[in-house]
Every structure is written in C-alpha cells, then in structure tokens.
Design a protein that fits this description.
Shape: elongated
Strand content: 5-15%
Distance between the termini: 27 Å
Oligomer: single chain
Largest sheet: 2 strands, parallel
Helix content: 40-55%
Structural class: alpha+beta
Length: 58
C-alpha cells in the first residue's frame, strides 16, 4: 500500500496554488475548491501569463 498526499484548498492567490501544484514532488494531487471561478476572476484583473499557468493545472 502506497501513501498518497492530496491537498484540498480554496486559496485565492494563483501563485500560492502554483506552489502546491508545481513546487514539490511530494504532493500527488491538488483539489481546488473553485478553480474555474478563480480563472474567470483572474482573466478580469490579472495578466494572461497567470491565466495560462492556471490552465496548466486543469
């Protein structure tokens, strides 16, 4: 039996979500409470680069 580490978050800062997803190999999966809503909000106020980064999470 192998151990799986899952992070469940509702973090509103895209960079913090990126640190979970891209920052460590110890985490097997990240479940974001409202990812699609955050992507919509980010498209309205933040750069396209961050939107592309969020798109890689999906």
């Amino acid at each position: 039996m192998s151990l799986h580490i899952v992070v469940v978050t509702a973090e509103s800062m895209p960079n913090c979500v990126a640190s979970f997803v891209l920052g460590t190999e110890d985490i097997d999966s990240v479940c974001y409470f409202a990812l699609y809503e955050m992507i919509g909000d980010v498209k309205e106020v933040i750069s396209e680069d961050i939107v592309e980064t969020l798109g890689t999470f999906v």
